[in-house]
Amino acid sequence: MRILFVCIGNICRSPIAEGVMRSLVKQHQMDWEVASAGTASFHVGEAPHTYSQQICQQHGVNITRQRAQQLSLSLLEAHDKVYAMSLDVFEEIQNTYPTALTAGKLELFLNVLHPGKNESVPDPWYGVKADYATVYNLIAQACACILKLPTDAKK
After folding, report:
1. Is 7 an annotated catalytic residue?
2. pLDDT digits (tens, 9 = 90+) for 100-124
């Protein structure tokens, strides 16, 4: 299984999701590949936001080596499942890369917790440090849920 998490800049939500999922995959000794990307190029090459790193570190998840990358067709093609962290990101991916949706790869991330509700992970970028804890907890719940999905739903 190869999973890709996508947000806007790849420095807040999707790096947290990548870190949490990598940690869970390692803990459960699963042979999954996990990555993240952003739809925008604002932060390409940068480390995750300081608060993203701090909240992950508080939970024993190290994301300091991650670097932001921009979403591309080759990244989409290299992954079995693509989770958009928010509705605007989902729509941008759908409009820019319609084959990702028709291939059954693209899903709104929080739909794994609340099917069909089409909820977004709040973007903590313009918020305060405490917002990153809220986002981390939501992401951790959804990542744990992904691991509990039936095998055929993960492909």
Report:
1. yes
2. 677 789 999 999 999 999 999 999 9
Q: How many residues belong to the chain?
A: 155
Catalytic residue among 12, 13, 56, 143: 13
Query: Can you give the pTM of this predicted structure?
Result: 0.94
Q: Choosing from 7, 12, 56, 143, which is the catalytic residue?
A: 7
Query: Is 145 a known active-site residue?
Result: no
Ranges of residues in the chain with a pLDDT under 50 are 150-155
CB 153 within 8 A of CB 30: no
Retrieve residue 14's tokens. Answer: 């999707």
Strands in 2-147 per DSSP E: 2-7, 33-38, 81-84, 106-108
